[in-house]
Amino acid sequence: MELFGNPTAMIHRLLVWLPLAIVSLCVHEFAHAATATALGDPTPRSHGRLTLDPRAHLDVFGTLMMLMGPMGWARPVPVDPRYLRGRLGELAVSLAGPASNVLLALVAAVCLKYLNLGDADRAVQTLFFLNIGLAVFNLLPIPPLDGSHLWPVLMPRSWRGAYERMLPWGTIFLLALLLWPGGSGFLESLTRTGALLVWNLVP
Predict the structure, then answer these.
(1) The predicted structure's pLDDT at residue 1
(2) Per annotation, catalytic residue among 2, 29, 90, 188
(3) How far apart are CA 118 and CA 195, in angstroms?
(4) How far is C-alpha 74 from the geometric centre of its chain's CA atoms?
(5) What is the pLDDT of residues 17-37, one digit of tens each?
(6) How many Å is the Cα radius of gyration of the chain?
């Protein structure tokens, strides 16, 4: 891998990218937990997930994957939809994670546009693009990603039957996307588009 042949890239990944990825993933999972708790579900609190402590959220293999490559993950927050208040409670919980990443990206964009960051500039750029990537990836309409709860609400009713029949195969579709030679380019294109949209939100 190019990463291991490039000491500068490896140092950046260990000292900058990996810590920022861990923070961003923990904020993402905490947002799910806090939203579910606010809507009446005691499950995240009872499982110790209403916290920003990385030990409560990180998956060992998912963290290793963040070190080795561009992808990684944390443990999903357990949610019981029966407790959620309101018809759109589950949708709100699902959107909370990507929304938290967009918020972190907006904060990074403000810092990049209005502050003289000096040596910290590259780290803040990493934070910006990392969180855009997390938001875009999690909004894909593939189970078990957060987007699989959003798109059925938005799509025409006539499409929902076919979509629901696809749900059990979500993990296979996701692996196919990640292993597909053009998958990384597709995700990078979506991330660039998302980054441009968020960047332009900051005057």
Answers:
(1) 47
(2) 29
(3) 22
(4) 9
(5) 889 999 999 999 999 999 999
(6) 18
pTM score, two decimals?
0.86
* Cα gap 8→44, rounded to integer Å: 39
Q: Encode 80-116: b = buried (16+ Cβ within 10 Å), e = exposed.
A: eeeebeeeebbbbbbbbbbbbbbebbbebbebbeeee
Longest dimension (CA), the chain: 53
d(CA 177, CA 84): 32
What residues contact residue 160 under an 8 Å CB cut-off, 6+ apart? 152
Least-confidence region, from 41-55, 74-88, 187-201: 74-88
Element (H, E) at 124: helix 121-138
Q: How far apart are CA 184 and CA 34, in angstroms?
A: 31
Distance separating alpha carbons of residues 133 and 136, to the nearest angstrom = 5
CB atoms under 10 Å from CB of 145, counted, come to 19
Where exactly are the structural domains of the chain? 7-201
The span from the CA of 183 to the CA of 105, in Å, is: 23
Give 120: exposed, middle or buried? Use CB within 10 Å, 0-12, 13-18, 19+. Answer: middle
Mean pLDDT score, 84-89: 80
Residue 29 designated active-site? yes
- Structural tokens at position 18: 């990996």
58-74 per-residue burial string, b: 16 or more CB within 10 A, e: under 16: beeeebeebeeebebbb
